[in-house]
Amino acid sequence: MNEQKQHLLRALAKGVRYDGRALTEFRPLKVELDISRSAEGSTRVLLGETDLFVGVKLGIETPYPDTPEDGNFMVNAELRPMSNPEFEVGPPGNQAIELARVVDRGIREAHAIDTAKLCIKKGEKVWSVMVDVCTVNDDGNLLDASGIGAIIAIKNTFFPKLKEDNTVDYEEKTKNKLPLQKEPIPITVYKVGSYFIVDPLPVEEKLSDARLTAAITEEGIVCALQKGGESQLTTDDISKMLDISIDKAQEIRKKLKL
Amino acid sequence: MNGENSKMKTANALKVQDRDIVVPGELLCEGEGFVHGKNIYKKENKLFAGMLGMVRIEKDIVKIIPLSGKYMPKEEDRVIGKVIDVLMSGWRFEINSAYSAVLPLKEAGSDFIPKGADLTKYFDFDDYVVAQITNVTTQNLVDLTTRGPGLKKLRGGRVIQVNPTKVPRIIGKDASMVKLLKDSTGCDIQVGQNGLVWVSGDPEKEVIAINTIKKIEKEAHTQGLTENIDAFLKGGKK
Q: How far is B51 from B193, CA to CA, in rounded Å?
């Protein structure tokens, strides 16, 4: 492992990634909309060879007692065994839980969805937004791909028809979109040795020392963080990483015309 | 006369042509006239495809060349493996297959390894090794050896995965393709029959070598591949 890491560091010292990219360069990103008929909003994200689906389902639920006027928001991630030999069937593991929570935190802490507008009847009925991430192929950087997919799926979610008796008619979609206030994009910066890289390949993910995911709003405000990996980060490291995140988030926003 | 007749019969019994692409369960031929090779199964005098691939018919032998699929361990194959476990008397390797392989202590090299020695000194976790398969049992238990010319531990470098069925094209006739790659990029390259390729060299050159390998993999079925790749490498250098 050590020799392989030395090898990677030698390449990074020359400014060349394992697939020939620059250190802070993303792979081609492609987003397809409305891939699922039964979901209220859905996208497929292709980031290099990484491939995943995000679906948004809307339902009616009772609100939590402490927020009687706010809609519910949930993110769930499923790492399918077919997408990576290391993923197993069964209950979600650490990686799946972390992925779902990072996506959830980015959107929740940016107050991206105006949950107050999801209230149907105070304390009794609110819309609940359920986001599901489902991986098809893991070729690195599931964190960013899922986060980008989730916000685009939410942005393209239409309410189904609400019937007189406050039940949902899923067959009929209305033209009302989910009330969106912010569009946070998560960017994960990996630290390998003394180098900072974005959009890692699986081998780079494995050999990295630490990572920092930052959700960035359109104003360039950092609204959520997640640190991972075994080694520590200095304050200097963090400010450098955040600069890269903010820069990359705006670049991706422009590319996707968000 | 009689021979001609039987030839007619076998020709009629064939339901597919040479070089056809077939899917599992597809009827290939009827009657007793054919001998079947790998990836084909027989049911009531009929031969069916057991795999997605290209049919090859040579006289009365029908076989399927798979277009893709996981590596199946075969005796005498040189493979690239990764240490996934250190055992009491050897190492367990991941060989990009459904089955893992074991390297016993006495096959590990010319050095004498005393009893109770720290085996990670020789091969540690996540080390890559070029090894040869010595034996595959009917239960698919695989034995390896690292004693032999060119069999060794791979230091540094990086490993990529390719489709195992395309490995012969990456190696080329008499290893001509690998030689071409090595000469034009200056990288050290080891190709395992199991679809793992180890590359080590200058970072920029490594990227060229790997892009070329991916190109070979994609265009494996085309004519004049070596010339195309040669032109590609020369074009990429400018």
A: 20
